């Protein structure tokens, strides 16, 4: 018998074009464009054209990678037939994922129109199908009917995650994990479990998400999918450090995450994600210099991968801007945030969650400069976006409300500040009392109480927050901030008790390796006032000596403390 002739390059190209056309072709372009315009969303046609451009580029990259895979075996002779099959199967999965996204984008809701080009940019790049570590780990596509159906559901679920349809994604993810548990396909089950963890996190169910992601690590490790193991670790570190507000616990996970990324082959995207995640964790721990350095590394790596104007780079710059603000580099922070804002507006429009994050950080820079009207304006832009995208009950939406309340309070608009906090309290009514955003809300109420000299109410709110933060082992900065508010509330009743609270708070503050020192002078002023009332000036003077950077303009206050010391 003679061996069948191998397909020619022309035949391979035709097969690739026919396959990707099933996901994205001329009819799909028209269908998506018409659907966008039908939503009546602002700039719908412009966003549709931008989306078409992104998907056309993805298709072209996919075709180039498919031809490269074929040529590596049949022309260059540097790759086995078995590895070619895995690369083609990987590319086929990506085409199916693209198809699932296109199907959903042909039935868009108005809020998705603005974000659509960015969503398409977040499709898994075809170049990942050259990653030998991933290819060796992945099994070929399921062959049973049930397996194929579960695989299709998984792709639809991942598309829902991209679109931000969090409630629907969570329902589908729960069902899919149950479905794949009955199949003899551990790869599908591991991916389903990972996506359930992502869906729970996106829906604000952080404790459940953390537990699920730990199981996803085990599932992926059992099938030696090192890339998925690393992805789950990275997501878990971010979740524990940020959403759960436990940066110290997240830092303890760093060695496992680093090892997982290395074992997965140090994929450039994951190495950049690791730097990004560690930057956020360091920021949560108050080590601002390390956070800034990690984020600079993440930005540099992502520029190499995506280009300087890519939304992922803009996201990195948004976080870098916050860290530069914390280290007092306000001019650089402003420049970085303005670039991120311009790139985001151009690529994604004015209703994207990334713009909300950038506006939040711009508001922080304005607050640092004590430009409270500008800070409030940026926060309201961010709130409008989050209400549309995340909804009124999401923790991040209500964090914005607490910050708006602060900006209003600083402008002397206390009734408006309290009303904003009441809206947040109503929205978070069904959330568990251990949720960091809910605890932070109590601290915000206490600050308004202080401004209105409602000492007992302030003490009650602050005491509840202090206890709650300690119960969940929250970040040092969060616990210290709540203790300082409690001390200020207690001071009119018992200055000596307040002084003890101040010392507890400052003992936490100094454990932070590289922290934001902007408020140190105000802290020393209040500490001195309480120490004088408690007739214990030596305690304040000890902190004056410890923080000389904050005492430059406090000479008169130091003299008053010195003069109040007991004479022998």
What characteristics describe this protein?
single chain; 568 residues; mainly alpha; 28 helices; 0% strand
Q: Count the strands?
A: 0
Q: Using the coordinates shown, work out and report the CATH topology of one domain.
A: Serine Threonine Protein Phosphatase 5, Tetratricopeptide repeat
Identify low-pLDDT runs.
none
- Helix/strand structural class: mainly alpha
C-alpha geometry: elongated
- Measured by DSSP, the beta-strand proportion falls in under 5%
Helix proportion range? over 70%
Top CATH class of one domain = Mainly Alpha
Largest sheet: none
End-to-end distance? 112 Å
Roughly how many Å is the radius of gyration?
Answer: 27 Å
CATH architecture of one domain: Alpha Horseshoe
CATH homologous superfamily identity of one domain: Tetratricopeptide repeat domain
Order of helices and strands: HHHHHHHHHHHHHHHHHHHHHHHHHHHH
What's the helix count? Answer: 28
Average pLDDT, all residues: 91
